[in-house]
From TrEMBL:
GO annotation, biological process: peptide catabolic process; proteolysis
Residues annotated as domain Peptidase M1 membrane alanine aminopeptidase: 13-95
Keyword Ligase: no
Name of the protein described by the UniProt record: Protease m1 zinc metalloprotease
Keyword Protease: yes
UniProt record similarity statement: Belongs to the peptidase M1 family.
Gene Ontology terms, MF aspect: metalloaminopeptidase activity; peptide binding; zinc ion binding
Residue intervals of the ERAP1-like C-terminal domain: 188-266
Pfam families: ERAP1_C, Peptidase_M1
UniProt gene name: 6044154
Gene Ontology CC entries for this record: cytoplasm; extracellular space; membrane
Keywords, comma-separated and alphabetical: Hydrolase, Metalloprotease, Protease
Organism: Culex quinquefasciatus
Matching InterPro entries: ERAP1-like_C_dom, Peptidase_M1_aminopeptidases, Peptidase_M1_dom, Peptidase_M4/M1_CTD_sf
Length: 266
């Protein structure tokens, strides 16, 4: 999964240097990550149908992103994969027009069996390129850096640890939401089955420990994609000072049984 802060669409290109920034390899890599996230939502069959239809209807023609979104809406019109009150164009623009990726904070309320999910931005990029984007915002050429994403998410829990598909898909369009769960206080929950979302996830300390202990007792209780995600996110939030070192070390103990290279490379 690709984590760089660059935005996919660069608004306000006025000089050769600004245009050059729009064609960095990491821009294309992040674009592919966003499209792959959508592919996992719609499924391979519908995705292939969408790509085939788009190429056929627009062959030898000049296209803009809106053409892509309209085609995707037509292919998925009868499904309930996307929210009814939000267009695919609006969903995609929330990912295309921002130079960061979101972080989700997942805090369980163990006394009433609910989960509070909050989205925030990754830390501001303080590089020269980040300063350029900040200046563009101040000039009114970029969207508000405090904007929210329209985030697809799913989750598994210990009482129903089904990772065969990415559904059902839920959508977070507000800064935060509260959802119910029937997981007990000694059962783990996990967002982004098979690491299907382009975002970081930080859990409350108790849930981190439950995930760590589950992997210690049975490493195959979660697929390798999620084990890799957990490691990557744990190191990331520890470096930010948002995850206790003891929790990180407890999670690392499952590596004594890990044989998948994907996890070790994370």
């Amino acid at each position: 999964m690709f984590w760089h802060l660059d935005r996919i669409t660069n608004i306000g290109c006025r000089t050769p240097e600004q245009i050059k920034r729009s064609y960095k390899p990491r821009i294309f890599e992040r674009s592919a990550s966003v499209l792959n996230m959508i592919r996992q939502i719609v499924g391979n069959f519908s995705w292939q149908k969408f790509v085939g239809s788009f190429l056929k209807n627009h062959q030898l023609a000049t296209v803009v992103p809106r053409n892509l979104y309209i085609e995707l809406e037509q292919v998925t019109a009868r499904s309930e994969l996307f929210p009814k009150n939000i267009s695919i164009e609006k969903i995609m623009n929330s990912w295309m027009m921002n130079n960061r990726v979101p972080e989700l904070t997942v805090e369980r309320r163990y006394n009433d069996n609910t989960i509070n999910i909050t989205q925030t931005q990754m830390d501001r990029d303080i590089s020269a390129e980040g300063y350029f984007l900040w200046k563009m915002y101040k000039l009114g050429r970029l969207r508000d850096p405090n904007q929210t994403w329209i985030i697809p998410y799913n989750y598994a829990q210990e009482s129903d640890a089904n990772f065969d598909g990415v559904g059902p898909i839920h959508w977070l369009a507000e800064p935060s939401t509260v959802i119910p769960t029937n997981a007990t206080s000694n059962q783990w929950i996990l967002l982004s089955k098979r690491h299907s979302g382009l975002y970081r996830i930080n859990y409350d300390e108790q849930n981190w420990k439950l995930l760590a202990r589950a992997l210690q007792s049975n490493i195959s209780c979660m697929p390798r994609e999620n084990r890799a995600q957990l490691l990557s996110d744990a190191f990331y939030f520890h470096e930010k000072g948002q995850l206790n070192k003891s929790v990180l070390f407890e999670l690392l103990t499952f590596l004594s049984h890990e044989t998948e290279s994907l996890v070790w490379q994370s």
